[in-house]
Amino acid sequence: MEYKEMLKRALSKVRKTDETERFEVPAPEIFIQGNQTVIKNFGSIASALRRDQKHLLKFMTKELAAPGYCDGQRAFFQRVVSKSFVAKKVDNYINEFVKCRECKKPDTKLVKEGRILILKCEACGARKSVKQV
Ligand SMILES: [Zn+2]
């Protein structure tokens, strides 16, 4: 029941980051639980970005300046933040770790070369090292 509702919401709230792009990332679905912020569709966001949930989690805990963990689709952070704040951080992640710097397309992957993380574009072939999270 709850899972179905979650799925329905995730599907209905798909937004575009840019009018001209086909790249679609679900808007964060959040709720506050005590002094925690829960992102209900964290797993869907990570998979829409084609990124490891753990990598996104690490980035988010740093950006939100709060410890966090994943439990299935959900992510929990030990701080109360707004939905727009979370959405902005996801956008930052996209700009830093998903979008190609050259062609701005999201058809990229992160590859590790030694200790360096490289954002490799599958559309134009550009390579750029990214910061560690
Ligand atoms: Zn590119």
Count structural domains: 2
Distance between the ends:
36 Å
Could you describe the largest sheet, including whether it forms a barrel? 4 strands, antiparallel
Shape: globular
Question: Could you name the CATH topology of the largest domain?
Answer: Defensin A-like
Q: What percentage of the residues does DSSP assign to strands (E)?
A: 25-35%
Order of helices and strands: HEEEEHHEEHEEE
Summed up, the helix count is 4
Strand arrangement, largest sheet?
Answer: 3-4-6-5
Bound molecules: zinc ion
Provide the CATH architecture of the largest domain: 2-Layer Sandwich
Count of strand segments: 9
Task: Please name the defining characteristics of this protein.
33% helix; 133 residues; 4 helices; four-stranded antiparallel beta sheet; three-stranded antiparallel beta sheet; alpha+beta; binds zinc ion; globular; Defensin A-like; single chain
Structure commentary:
By secondary structure, the protein is an alpha+beta fold. It folds into two domains: 2-98, Defensin A-like, CATH 3.30.30; 101-133, no CATH class. The chain has four helices and nine strands. The chain has helices spanning 2-12, 42-48, 53-63, 83-97, and strands at residues 14-16, 24-26, 30-33, 36-39, 68-71, 74-77, 108-113, 116-121, 127-130. β7 (108-113) and β8 (116-121) form a beta hairpin. α3 (53-63) crosses α4 (83-97). The longest helix has 15 residues, at 83-97. The radius of gyration is 15 Å and the shape is globular. Residues 16-20 have low confidence and may be disordered. It binds zinc ion.
